[in-house]
Amino acid sequence: MTVKAQYEPRMSAQPHQRASTQAPASESPPARRDALTRFASLLVFVLVWHVAALAVESSTLPPPLTVFERIVAETVSLALPEHLATTLSRVVISFGAAMLIGTAIGIAMGHWRRLDLFLDGWLVLGLNIPALVTIILCYVWFGLNDAAAIIAVAINKIPTVVVTVREGARAIDPRLMQVASAYRLSRWRTFTRVYLPQLQPYLMAAARSGLSLIWKIVLVVELLGRSNGIGFQLNVFFQFFDITGILAYTLVFAAIVLLVEALVLRPLERRVTRWRG
Amino acid sequence: MLEIDIARKSYPDRGGQPHLALEALRMRVRPGEFACVVGPSGCGKSTLLNLVGGLDADFQGRIALDGQPPAGGVGFMFQEPRLMPWLTVLDNVRLVLGDDPGGPERARQLLAAMELGDVLDAFPGRLSGGMQRRVALARAFVIEPRLLLMDEPFVSLDAPTADRLRTMLVEIWRERQTTVLFVTHDLREALALGDRVFFLSGAPARVVLELPVRLDRPRSPANPAVQALQQAVLERHPELLAGLANAADDAIEETELEQP
């Protein structure tokens, strides 16, 4: 028995070795294996959900299939695409505004100590004020309209962009900036080819964390004061205790977030960090 | 003609006290001449180059290239290569080009002449220190500068690599007849490269000696004639390289040493 036990690992080791020597021959095995892992994780999630739903057997936890059917129904009726489009446009506009304004302020604060001192207190306030407060105040001051909704979201996001970009502006290498001025590069060229690439990792971090924050806040804003969008719709479902509807909208929304991450952010990051190779 | 007349240049030191870096410094470099500047470390050589290169405009005095303040057409090579790590070799050289239609082609030719033709699309992080400096050299020459400023560009390289780069530099310089101002703390390097060597005193720096070098080119720092000249200079002015030259002595000496 002991002999057999000693043998077994060796036997199993052989096919293993063969697999690993074969690996380089196929197209890009690590990338393929990574994708497989991601897919397996998704599959396990759905399975666990399914089993849990069967076990609980309650209308508060519908099984995945029911939710998928609901997604199809809501898509066919065009209700979901419309609300989704509304929410996405709010996300895009407030994200863009927050990044633009936050980057400008962050660069300025990183460069001028006096301005940094002056704005620092405001920044701490902005970072710590609860999102709900800015949302309520914006609706009260600017009315229950889209502009107020977008301003509220942007105000929540701007301080974190400022903090991240300010770090980047402080880390700018003066020696590279000297190259730009020694060769009399134009302001535009200096900014785009010498300055921004140094800021890029910080911008990327701000965009990442910004997007995840904005997804969440936009829904709250819609729930509190808009009559369309995913947040509004979720509130309606909540009032009717329609858990299937809530999960259907949530899943689609989550899928969009994953898609943006996989199709926009990650390729963009790979492109701009190519030189780190 | 490059004319440098600096009455005073001071900057705040770490404690915030004004530090007088340059005072009553006067230099004349003829068009197409290779001028070297040597002096003890910390005497203000880099400060001088920054003033000439327009990186620092806060000084009393006048700097003129052909009668005008040097604006554009100045190449600058720093102590470190200072390439943009996110740009390829070719893009690093093209970065400093304006709208000149012949520029991109010139960039390729220069890089090829410096044996960098195979790494045009590589990023600087992949290159050795010597290769990075060759890219920086190509970048300096691609704008066809009227004046080239070099701040100890071959420091921290091993001797053969530094020698090779010096040879390349002299070859391109002779082809283009650019006026060069080359700062170094290495007297032998200065004697090997320069048509004229300016010796600076310790801070506040001023020119204490101007030495024309008439040795035949090409000459390497290991060349016996260069070494002999170095010996002669050191014997005649033993205090020079120690940075102890008397700054109160008003007359700038122009030395004529016997040169083969």
Automatic annotation (TrEMBL), chain A:
Classify the main location. membrane
GO CC, alphabetical? plasma membrane
Q: Which family does it belong to?
A: Belongs to the binding-protein-dependent transport system permease family.
* Superkingdom field: Bacteria
Q: How does the record say this protein sits in the membrane?
A: Multi-pass membrane protein
Per UniProt, residues of the ABC transmembrane type-1 domain are: 84-264
Q: What is the lineage of its organism?
A: Bacteria, Pseudomonadati, Pseudomonadota, Betaproteobacteria, Rhodocyclales
Query: Which CDD domains does this UniProt record tie to the protein?
Result: TM_PBP2
Residues that span the membrane, as ranges? 35-56, 91-110, 122-142, 236-265
Q: Which GO terms describe its biological process?
A: transmembrane transport
| Cellular localisation | Cell membrane
Region named Disordered: 1-30
The entry's keywords = Cell membrane, Membrane, Transmembrane, Transmembrane helix, Transport
Biased composition range(s): Polar residues: 14-25
Name the InterPro entries on file. Answer: MetI-like (IPR000515), MetI-like_sf (IPR035906)
Please give the name of this protein.
Answer: ABC transporter permease
From TrEMBL, chain B:
The organism sits in which domain of life? Answer: Bacteria
Q: Which UniProt keywords apply?
A: ATP-binding, Cell membrane, Membrane, Nucleotide-binding, Transport
Domain ABC transporter, chain residue ranges per copy: 1-227
Per UniProt, what is one GO molecular function of this protein?
Answer: ATP hydrolysis activity
Mention any Pfam family matching this sequence: ABC_tran
Stored PROSITE patterns: ABC_TRANSPORTER_1, ABC_TRANSPORTER_2
Q: Which family does it belong to?
A: Belongs to the ABC transporter superfamily.
The name of this protein is ABC transporter
Species annotation: Thauera propionica
